[in-house]
Design goal:
Structural class of chain B: mainly alpha
Largest interface: A-B, 99 and 94 residues
Radius of gyration of chain A: 29 Å
Number of helices of chain A: 16
Strand content of chain B: under 5%
Mean pLDDT of chain A: 90
Largest sheet of chain B: 4 strands, antiparallel
Helix content of chain A: over 70%
Oligomer: heterodimer
Largest sheet of chain A: 2 strands, antiparallel
Number of domains of chain B: 1
Strand order of the largest sheet of chain A: 1-2
Helix content of chain B: 55-70%
Number of strands of chain A: 2
Low-confidence stretches of chain B: none
Amino acid sequence: MSIVNALLRETKFISKDRSVCFWMAIVISLSALSLGFGLAEVNRQQATIDKLLIVDQEDRAAQIEKQKGWGGAAYYSFHLSYDAPSDFAFAAIGLRDVQAWKHRIRMLALEGQIYERDVGNPSIALVGRFDFAFFCAFIVPLILIILLYDLRSSERNAGRFNLLEASTGQANNLWLLRASLRAGALYLCLIVPLIAAAIIAGTSTGTLILACLFVLAYILFWTALCFVVSAWQKPDAVLLMTLLGIWISTAVIIPAGARLAIDKAVTLPAGSDILMLQREAVNDAWDLPREATMNAFFERHPEWADYQAVEQSFEWQWYYAFQQVGDQKAEALSKAYRDGRLKRDKLASWAALLAPPALLERALQNLANTDIKASIRYEDSVRDYHAELRAFYYPKFFENQAFDKASLEGLPEYKAAK
Amino acid sequence: MKQILLIAAGEWRYWLRSRLALGSAFIFLLLFFVTSVLSSWHIEAQSHSREHHQSEAEDTFLAQPDRHPHRMVHYGHYLFRTAAPLASFDPGLDMVTGQSIFLEGHRQNTVMFAESAASADFGGLSWLSPALIYQLFAPLIIILLAYGSIAREREAAVLAPLMALGVSGHQLIAGKALALLSFILLMLVPLLISSSLALNRGESLNALLLLAGFYFIYLSLWLALSLLASTVFKKRASVLLTLFGLWFGLNLVLPSLAVNAIGSESTAAGKIESDLIMMADLRKLGNGHNASDPAFTKLKADLLAEHGVDNIEELPVNFRGIVAMYSEKKLTKVLNDYANKRMMAELQQEQALVRFGWLSPALAIAAASRAIAGTDLIHYHLFQTQAEAVRFNFVQGLNRAHAEALSYQADINRNKDEDSWKKARVDASNWQVLDEYEFQTAALSERYSNAAQAMRMLLAWLILAIAILFWRGGSIKP
């Protein structure tokens, strides 16, 4: 009974505390703002994709219209691939401002196309969006610090400290109750807008529950930290600066150090080397004996190995074969670039254990499919799609099928990554 | 005057006794030192590797054997952007923009391989740079030193005796401000030392001084804000809390919210989108690979009339090369129109972002700092424009060789047999159309004018803060 009474008393007390109410109002508005902007951005990206799908279709139809053979059709028709924002992307836009999430590819060597970056304004990527993930991970701890750092010392300064400790049976319980009430109120202010946004966006329940749990764990962590630090009998300024120091270390310094160390430890091939290697391979092929190209090609496609090369005249079979051989030559380097990025990310997920703000942001981006893993999954799906295009055209070339525009209706369509 | 100096000296004595102030200043210095060293190593290594890649790309292009000139148009060339000299202090956009571009005929490619897209991801603040330390953490040190300056005296009840001795509120504030100003000047020494490395890489001393000047204004603004809070609020705790809230509101919350705002209101169409719109326009231009395309009939008639011959075989130049030149020129005009539109839209977004500097001085100083360092959006666009000029130049050089050094007969028969294939070539000396390239920042006067608006904002903030401080200072009461 006394717990309930204490709870009621403290709740009433909090609701009359003007500064607590002020910060709660800030949290709920910032949370709603970040989510509102996030929803708008996701809608904008989806609208861009929808618009592109239509103009892409028109452009391809116009190009194919002019063509008289398979080779030209494959050369002039581009195909849109895209990574649509997930049902939780509104909460964590993540890397979608630096990583390309849309491409237009054709049947030429893919290595020359897949690293094209159609991304937005770099100024936006530099400053970074105020999304829910950023707000929760970086700003909310600062507000919690303000709410909790002087839990005891404010009463001490007001001269009520001894009286309060004496009048409650177990003094620690009172401070714990106060801290949890403030943190709990803050959590509600954060999460209620999130749930509303998730309903609007149709987020899957599992994702939403996980997100709420992650945020809860994070709030508990900072509450506990503030609770411990605020128990020190030190001046206010020292308590505040200690907590701020912890924030700076975990939000800025450890992440910066870890990023440098990981990037140094896992070296990536220079991106331009992949492109140059591919270009050299493709261009050298014009002057190489055709068997050299075709043999390298047949290693991957034994089914066409009985094809007889016609020397000294241009042939699309040979042209597209050396495009593919160009990709084959660059494959090892390109794979090293892909795997290196994944390895960096894996190490980063361990290092983030030392940097809770980065940990939470990464966890939310993971839920939202806006992290580097999702970006590489998208890249893989573009590769798969490109392979499908090749699988579609190769029989046409190698079996010398008569050109038939109608059968181009059966061109594979890009399907999003799972 | 003597009293002001005495107050300032007293403030310094207080700081030297305060472990919190000394400790924080020391940590700041250490952090700045480590970041500066790492950052200049990084930039040095990057510049080295890009210069190496650039000369390699030039060498391989020039070393190509005799071949058909149009193959060289598609062989293409790479450009690498070397970092601006001051990028080791303020890397600005460099981390989020691509740094190399592939140049070829008939196409404008995007700038590829941004560092931040391949790096271990720990959120935006992990991109710690010397400039960010000044923008984000230097204000904290100033807050820490300044928050108690007036409030402390009030709490210790020294304000009344002090004023009884004839010290006015203005004098008190002037003394404290003098101490803090001397501290800020000291704080700028590491900035000058760190950025002086840029002198070796060809930056002018004036750029450094200008940069230091901007940061001086910015830090003075925080000084004025801190003194103001210390004057207005009765308790030190509330001064500190207010300044702390102001710090993260102005430095962390507002800039990102401003990004949300500009991202949602103005829409700069992406490359693929504007390319697709452009493709519809381009279909009208004709295909430069096909000299019998109807779009070139007029070109043909004009050329025949000019040389007084009846058919293209009798022309002294290779008609296919002429068509290639003509269509590349027309195409490039359209490509550039769309590229300029896209860059203009990005620039307008950026300007809208900078306008939020009226609300957040952190945005203003960041913009000014990037502009002076030559790592802002304008310089990113400059690289793209220069790359396009290089592209157009070498492609047209090759097309000219196509028109003048290769006979029309040899050209159209190139696919006949092995021998004609070999005849349809020009000498490799024709590849000397490539200019050596190195990215250079714009002249300082231009960079300064790019930073001018942000500087006006900082000055306006400072003047406003000083005016309010002066007004409140007159009414300081014990």
